[in-house]
Amino acid sequence: MRHSGEIIDVPLKPEIDHFSAHGVVFVDGTIWDADVVVLATGYEQRKVLLEAGNELLVDRSVRNGSTTAQQLSTNLKYIFPLYRHIFSLGASYPSNALAFLGLPTRIANCPSDIAQSLLVAHAIFNASILPSREEMLQELGENEAHIRSLGYDPYTIGHEMVGAAPIDYQDGLIDFLRSKASARLVEGAEAN
User: Fold this and answer.
1) Where are the beta strands (DSSP E) in 77-183?
2) What is the rounded distance in angstroms from the CA atom of residue 159 to the CA atom of residue 77?
3) Which residues are CB-contacts of 106 (< 8 A; sequence separation ≥ 6)?
4) Where in the chain is the domain with CATH 3.50.50.60?
5) How many whole angstroms separate alpha carbon 116 and alpha carbon 174?
6) Strands 57-58 and 73-74, bridge-based pairing
7) Which residue from 55, 96, 140, 154 lies 20 to 30 Å from 36 (Cα-Cα)?
8) CA pair distance 138, 83, nearest whole angstrom
9) What is the CATH code for 48-191?
């Protein structure tokens, strides 16, 4: 950032907790004296129909818990627990009963949405292509741990694709479907 020709170092700060007469107070308790604040808030992960039906719990304070959450939840940045950013792993219904398309960001949305749509269509038709809920939760936990190892917090960056080429996400979904189709062909050949 430049101010009157000089470069100003602007440090990254956590979320704003509140404003005071003395400046901005962040959730970590630090206070920053500021004359001007520009709020670039982005988008909140709100799904009003699910909230109204109590299927999506809104809790802005959640910073961890995807693999232990029993109910679909959001801290307004991240909807969890979701398998591969798509399938709800809420305990009150089957894993293929509620799917979200288009949540990933920093990715080419059209190819990603098509890959997600194909996986959802196959999972609706044949739920057995999905791993068990426990396996999906384990994979989710591993993915969140990987994101943290890269220096990011999944509960802050939400469904942003980090750590790999965005094409890896959509190719991974298609490869998953291919592996399931290949396994069915092998099973069919062995049965004959």
Assistant:
1) 79-80, 82-83, 87-88
2) 8
3) 160, 161, 162, 166
4) 48-191
5) 9
6) parallel
7) 154
8) 10
9) 3.50.50.60
Contact 93, 81 (CB under 8 A): no
Instruction: Give the DSSP H or E segment for 2.
Output: strand 2-3
Helix pair angle (166-191, 109-125), 10° resolution: 30
Question: Which residues are bridge partners to 26 per DSSP?
Answer: 16
Q: What contacts 120, CB < 8 A, 6 or more positions away?
A: 86, 87, 96, 99, 101
What the block records as the tokens of 175 is: 């490869």
Per-residue confidence of the chain (192 residues) as pLDDT tens digits? 445 566 666 677 777 888 887 788 888 888 888 776 766 656 788 888 888 888 999 988 887 777 777 889 999 999 999 999 999 999 888 999 999 999 998 888 899 999 999 999 999 999 999 999 999 999 999 999 999 999 999 999 999 998 767 679 999 999 999 998 877 766 666 665
Please say whether the beta carbons of 118 and 176 come within 8 A: no
CA separation for the pair 50, 189 (Å, rounded)? 43
